[in-house]
Amino acid sequence: MSDQVPWDVVVIGGGNAGLVAAITATERVSRVLLLERAPAALRGGNTRHTRNVRCVHDTGDAYTPGTYSHAELWNDLCAVGDGPSSEELASLTVRESASVPAWMSAHGIRWQPPLTGTLHLGRTNRFFLGGGKALINAYYRTARKTGLTVWYDSTVEDIGVSGDRCTGVVVCRGQATGPAAGRTLIKARAVVCASGGFEANHDWLRRYWGDAADNFLIRGPATNDGRVLAALYERGAAKAGQERGFHSVAIDARAPRFDGGIATRLDSIPFSVVVNASGERFYDEGEDLWPKRYAIWGRNIAGQPGQIAYSIWDSAVNRLFLPPMYSPATAGDVAGVARALGLAPDAVTATVAGYNKAVAAAGFGSARFNPARFDPSRLDGCATVGLVPPKSNWARPIDTPPFYGIAMRPGITFTFMGVQVTREARVRTSDGGAFANLFAAGEIMSGNVLSSGYLGGFGMTIGTVWGRLAGASAAAAASAAREAS
Amino acid sequence: MTKGPLDGLFTEFTEAPLTEAPFTEARRQLTICNACRYCEGYCAVFPALERLSELTSGDVTHLADLCHDCRDCYTACMYAPPHEFAVNVPAALSAVRRHTYDEYLPRLPWAAGPVKRRAAMFTAGLGAILLLALLGVLAGGARAGMQGAGVPGAGAGSPYLVIAYPALLAAVGLPALWSVLVMAGSAARYWRATGGHGLTSPRALLSALRQAASLRNLRGAGAGCSYPGDEPSAARRRLHGLVAWGFACCAGSTVAAAISQDIAGDPPPYPVLSAPVLLGVIGGAGMVIGCGGLLLLRRAAGTADAGTADAGTAGAGSADAASGPPREDAALARRGYALLAGLLLLAVTGLLTLVCRDTPAFGLILAVHLAVVVACFAIAPYTKFMHVIYRFLALVHDSAAVAGNAARESGKSAGGGPRKRA
Fold first, then answer.
1. Residue B101 in this model has a pLDDT that exceeds 80
2. Do residue A443 and residue A303 come from a single domain?
3. For an interface test with A, which of B37, B40, B77, B78 has the most A Cβ atoms less than 10 Å from its Cβ?
4. Are residues A125 and A254 in the same domain?
5. Mean pLDDT over all residues of chain B?
6. CB B250, CB B285: distance < 8 Å
7. How far A447 CA sits from the closest chain B CA (Å)?
8. What is the CATH number of the domain that holds A76?
9. How many Cβ atoms are within 10 Å of A159's Cβ, its own excluded?
10. Where does the pLDDT of residue B12 fall: very low under 50, low under 70, confident under 90, or very high at 90 and above?
């Protein structure tokens, strides 16, 4: 077996960060192996569900018109959640992001121009043609040309460590796992862990969220169970990020438990009122522009009883947001919608009536008396008066039948808690040191950058920036080890 | 539904399709697409989908014919099988296309119910060949032909040594006329069912012509087609272009010959350096290369669809070797083969006729070529040839809708519509 000859670099995980690391490594050393847990048809992990990347750009082009300065991206990053976890590493990520689009183009990624209506993301985020799976396919093609070896259906069960050196990985090939499955020790001169978070591991989530975790739907594949992360902790890696840190959005409660991706996301919230299981409102639906607020709603719903909430709107706004994948409940009155959703009709009717009154209380400034003021493309100031919590923008009466409603659950995109890394993407140890030849990139180290909030498209930025760093560092470590032997 | 000019010719059209199955499945998948929208950069289908407020059967039909089957959306789809959403838009839309190719054939005035496509096709093809044979025999042999045609100058290599000009005209013209009538009827029914508009707009027509001539929707926004496998490539668009432009050249060759003979009074055969021969040779060669290449691609696509890739091991791009479920309706795939084979036969026999025009085999080869021509003319409306008509109409409809949308957008302030997802 060839596993007696050590690989120069073994990359764990075949998503964006892993591919970028692997491609970077193949440009520097010859024997690079990528271990993808999924079968070929489902390769790419969470990256399959992504669509854009957020990068600093000092000049505009056809794909990102206008400029997006270092300072502006930094400020945007500081404004979400509790701000960056590590200023040093977050600032490095922002600085390095400027060269990411050119690197991606050079490695086979195609772009699409922002279309009409991309008022808030077209300037800051670059959209890749066809979305994340197309990007994954392009990277695998590039990787094939650079001589990367890929093993699909390959689950890494453990990391071999001796002192501060990683010796290799224990991999289980084929779809069978468990005690009966055949394990192989793969020797490696350097290892990059790009295996994602642990969001698909409900037992692990339950440690920090209790039973609420049972009601979390996972937007990516079930394979993101944190097995490699757990092995790293066991081998002495230092923790980074908050235990409850994650990127999560409001998704349709009927979405599958795993891998529902983008199509199950709901964008009705700023056009609706959102009530909990008791039929009461609990958060300002119009706090800020949707691209800046969509990422807080998973957490908002996770904090409600039963981890469920209901978005209710009327036909006046029905065509103003992306159509949901599953048909909404609909009825001629609010009570009918409440009944269809299994809510107490009186409670919901009272909530909507109170809301409508608070809209009317805004007088001539309100969307009710001045419909021209209602403008979803900006903070239009159409706010409720005397309502707690308020709806600060886009508040208009919900009074035009038929009415609609959808039940929503927290949809977890990825967890932030991972391993601490150095500026070279080296995994730090809990005793204050760092492994010599063990690196991490992507979601598994996103806790170094993100704390609790999320900025759309920044996960791909982290994956690409740190994939490059980890790939280059691993190649250098492998070359050094090869010369030493 | 408004009355069209051709309505009187055909029995009442009913909106209800024969079976709902392909529409139900396409609608299910397109609802997922409309909530995702990642593919909107590839072709005209997805932006068109996003403009629709609800999906009627006519809308689904329109989208199905707007689809050029480049399959980029399939390889880019994270919901493609084995994902439980099982999104396979090329397959779903090809099933709708096959259904509509059958459904929109005009009802015959003397027969109730839908046309049995295959029976009609064989009847028309056989009828055309019998007509050719009958007229050929009736009109007599070479001498009679020359006299009948009134082209005393017809020398060796002239078609009129084999069949008299009026007989030839009738043998080719009658099936062609039949074809044109059936196609017009199909087009009219299709246009009404899909709520088409834009045929009177020069801008929409021009835009559709430009897109058809350049096969823009096979470009994949520069990426090419994921056909036959998952590797994007320009091969299919180029080969398809060769077939289409080759076909146009051959049609041009016929027109040039008609002008030479009936206006310039110069009977065939024509010298090598003449418009009819040059156009015919270039067009024929284009069709042979194009059809041959597309047949090979189609065979590779069939193999790829059968799912042979060993996904477990091997190189980085092994999924690119294509595996997974079929991406085209099986019956439509067969019709695709048939169309390419028919066009190839047309081109090869045409070229042979030219090459052999000074040999004793000329008469036989010309007879075969003519039989192929009249049969193809007669059966065209029952074959996948109709994709030319339906797809062009879909492009006109789409161009008109795009222009209408742009006019509406510029008329109101920015924003308002659904925003792009983060």
1. yes
2. no
3. B78
4. no
5. 84
6. no
7. 21
8. 3.50.50.60
9. 24
10. very low
Q: Is residue B80 less than 8 Å (CB to CB) from chain A?
A: yes
Tokens of A443: 């979601």
Cα distances (angstroms) measured from residue B27 to each of A238, B32, B236: 50, 9, 28
Q: How confident is the model at residue A96 (pLDDT cuts 50, 70, 90)?
A: very high
Domain boundary among A346, A379, A411: A411
**Residue B89 at interface with chain A, using a CB cutoff of 8 Å:** no
Q: What is the pLDDT of residue A445?
A: 98
Q: How far is CA A405 from CA A269, A388, B149, B258, in A?
A: 11, 21, 77, 67
Residue B414's pLDDT is what?
38
Which two three-digit tokens encode residue B69?
Answer: 């089957």
Provide the domain limits for residue A230. 2-243+416-484
| Domain of residue A379, CATH code | 3.90.700.10
Q: Tell me, what's the pLDDT at A175?
A: 64
Same domain, A314 and A433: no
Looking only at Cα atoms, what is the longest distance across chain B?
Answer: 78
pLDDT in tens, A223-233: 999 999 999 99
Chain B nearest CA to A127, separation (Å): 9
* B19 Cβ contact partners less than 8 Å away, ≥ 6 residues apart: B99
Q: Determine the pLDDT at residue B166.
A: 85
Exposed/middle/buried for residue A222 (C-beta within 10 Å: 0-12, 13-18, 19+): middle
Whether residue A45 sits in one domain with residue A154: yes
Q: How many residues does chain A have?
A: 485
Average pLDDT, chain A: 93
Residues of A in contact with B420 (CB under 8 A): 114-115, 117-118, 121-122, 127
Residues A88 and A203 in one domain: yes
Spell out the alpha helix ranges (H) of B150-274.
165-193, 202-214, 235-258
Nearest C-alpha neighbor of B338 from the set B392, B393, B294: B294
Those residues whose C-beta lies under 8 Å from the C-beta of residue A360, and which sit 6 or more positions away, are A366, A368, A397
Q: At residue A232, what is the residue type?
A: L
Residue B406 is predicted with a pLDDT of: 83
